[in-house]
Specification:
ten-stranded antiparallel β-sheet; homodimer; 11 strands; Pnp Oxidase, Chain A; 225 residues
Chain lengths: 225, 225
């Protein structure tokens, strides 16, 4: 774990509510490791485009992947600057005024230019992407064929320039607020439902380790069942 | 409920996996009404910027709000084209190959230019924003003061040009797949924890209606407790 602080740049500096800016890389890694979908923004002919994608953190870089047939991803592969956000909503903050009502959240926005992952590194990167969503699944199922690999674009974005913002805790204290009005936080978190087996599954096939691991990864221990 | 289909434009046409494109406005409304945070993308000096914001749907427009001191929101208020995404991840799809592994999701990306909501319409819009997150909270707490209103920027974006994509169901069938390998879907959904009262709350204050309503809104009935 690196102890280097995230640099503050023109793009990552938080101007308002500066106390919410976080420069600790450990917090960044926790945000990225706990998410499932990132939103990728880029400019095409001066206008913003936005697409949700699966991703994974691999050390100090973010991996993205998609089809080689996806036009926006090809633009990213071609060197278009991107901004990539991962956001968690952790709770609704019930204050005693509408103005102070808020959300607890953790968000990371990464800025930069992605490079195409090529050669032997591709399989390693795809495995990292698979392991992020379904830890260990790679060893349970058929690996990608050469044809499938050729249809997959893998991109790597360094975690060099990142804006991390976090709000935690209860409503901000207001003078003269009425303590008889309920105030506090309604926590929100991810939860998994009962696994739904495929129609053609043989009887009595036990749940795979990767599914149990995905449940543990994507559900906080307090609500896992 | 309008039955008019979402128009397909250069920006909203889905080129890959076209079967995932949805043109039904009812699906769009459900995606927007069920979310808490939208990601707003815009281009600043040719480079993409991205910020997570609270939002609400109000009829056939999207409302966004933030501080008048937020530079990016001021750029949006000034007429910068934006793209706004709301995405739900509904499940992890465990296929029998890495390539077919997937996620079930519903996503909406709205394109356009927002206008500043002014005059009497501002309070109505702020109430819609409040009601989206915490239904009925407006009547339980102190309303905004003139000073708080002056510090708040409210923006409206028409739901004219929207790309909606949905993936549902189990893993895609693969010939010669081994039915003895577990395949299926791990459903994911939002869940609320136990409410955390503020430090200064008087004893025996019951949970407010708005909190119960927020729980019902943000948690599917099957997991609400």
């Amino acid at each position: 774990m690196t102890t280097e602080l995230l640099p503050v740049t023109k793009r990552t500096r938080v101007h308002r509510l500066r106390e919410r800016q976080v420069r600790d890389r450990a917090v960044l890694y926790e945000i990225l490791d706990g998410g499932l979908v990132a939103h990728v923004a880029l400019c095409v002919e001066g206008e913003p485009m936005l697409l949700p994608v699966a991703y994974a953190r691999d050390g100090d870089r973010l991996l993205l992947h998609g089809s080689t047939a996806a036009g926006l991803l090809r633009a990213v592969a071609g060197g278009a600057p991107i901004a990539v956000a991962v956001t968690h909503v952790d709770g609704l903050v019930f204050a005693r005024s509408i103005f102070d009502s808020s959300m607890n959240y953790r968000s990371a926005v990464v800025f930069g230019t992605a490079r195409v992952v090529e050669g032997d590194e591709r399989v390693t990167a795809l495995r990292a992407l698979s392991d992020h969503l379904m830890p260990g699944r790679w060893d349970e199922v058929r690996p990608p064929t050469a044809r499938e690999l050729a249809a997959t674009l893998v991109l790597a974005l360094p975690l060099d320039e990142v804006s991390v913002k976090v709000r935690t805790g209860g409503p901000s204290a207001e003078e003269a607020a009425d303590p008889a009005i309920w105030a506090g936080v309604l926590p929100l978190r991810a939860h998994t439902g009962e696994p739904l087996p495929a129609d053609d599954l043989s009887p009595d096939v036990p749940l795979p380790d990767s599914l149990r691991a995905a449940r543990r990864r994507h559900v906080p221990a307090t609500t896992a069942d």
